[in-house]
Specification:
With 317 residues, the chain is α/β, with parallel strands linked by helices. The protein has 13 helices and 9 strands.
Length: 317
């Protein structure tokens, strides 16, 4: 594992494989983290220590200091979204119906019907996009109250995505909770987060950069981590973690485990219940902020408990 001149991180699989002989999966994971951490900390311009956890802001800070003004109250947000729920439900139902009709037309080889339902689907999706854009305004932190994610380091190839992901995080997060992170290239299929560093690649979307930055929010704010662990435990109940690869059919998850709960049944993903043995992180807030950004009214309609938790935890410290 080494650093390129542009400070992107690369590694040689055969060489690493020799070091991992006889190790179990968890030991391999920890070893990779140790190697990566050593390179990151030794590199000029990179974060040299984990950002210190932040104390929770006092009520006076949250309400009175410029830049820390409390966002909209949950009751205000819910009242605003209530006016859009019927429209959202109707659009979702019509889209589902059109998808069925389109599949039937394709199976029947009916090109006329196929074209008709494709046009109808496009119209409904355009209408849904407009609804998503409109309802995002209700769940965003007011612009005048937004803070800044502190980017300690970016590489030339990550700077654009880093700033775009940070801007998204700032839209939905109380200023007092925004983290300090670095963003680097990492030639791995999945993006990640490790000790204050966001690891991305050329395929990482702006929303996923926001996801990884939100791991920093959880790591650097102990109250947030505790809240997320408590929420995950509440949703999991008496369940035992199951293999994500089995639940999703995606072997890339390897030995990663998750609490199934009803996350997917309620419009989400199995990954939301991801179980970390060290209890040093969750995917509750990271996946929740992505879902909030993607379609607030869908989130509010289908999993109101989770929706309320994300709003209260991110915006009501």
């Amino acid at each position: 594992m080494w650093l390129n001149p542009d400070k992107s991180i690369k590694y040689h699989i055969p060489t690493l494989a020799k070091q991992f002989v006889g190790m179990d999966a968890q030991t391999v994971g920890r070893h990779i983290e140790d190697l990566l951490g050593a390179h990151v900390q030794a590199a000029s311009g990179y974060v040299t220590q984990v950002a210190k956890p932040k104390p929770s802001p006092t009520n006076q800070q949250a309400q009175g200091i410029p830049g820390l003004t409390a966002p909209h109250a949950l009751s205000t947000i819910k009242a605003a979204l209530d006016s859009h729920t019927d429209h959202g439900k109707t659009l979702a139902k019509n889209l589902e119906s059109v998808e069925v009709e389109l599949k039937d037309a394709i199976d029947q080889g009916n090109s006329v019907k196929k074209q008709m339902f494709e046009q109808k689907r496009a119209q409904l999706k355009e209408e849904m996009t407009k609804l998503e854009e409109k309802t995002r305004q209700h769940v965003m932190v007011p612009e005048a109250a937004r803070g800044k994610v502190v980017l300690t380091h970016v590489t030339p190839t990550t700077v654009g995505k880093a700033r775009a992901g940070a801007e998204l995080a700032q839209m939905y997060t109380h200023a007092a909770l925004l983290p300090t992170v670095g963003v680097v290239d990492f030639n791995r299929k999945r993006a990640g987060y490790l000790h204050g560093m966001v690891l991305i690649n050329g395929l990482t979307s702006h929303s996923h950069v926001m996801h990884e930055i939100t791991h920093g929010i959880e790591e650097q704010n102990p109250r947030v981590l505790k809240a997320c662990l408590d929420f995950l435990n509440k949703r999991a109940g008496n369940e035992y973690p199951q293999l994500l690869a089995t639940l999703t059919g995606n072997p890339d998850y390897g030995t990663d485990r998750t609490y199934k709960d009803r996350f997917e049944e309620l419009g989400g993903k199995h990954y939301m219940g991801r179980f970390y043995p060290g209890r040093d992180g969750t995917e509750i807030l990271t996946m929740g902020i992505e879902r909030l950004h993607r379609n607030p009214v869908e989130f509010y309609i289908n999993d109101p408990e989770y929706f309320e938790f994300v709003i209260q935890t991110l915006q009501q410290p």
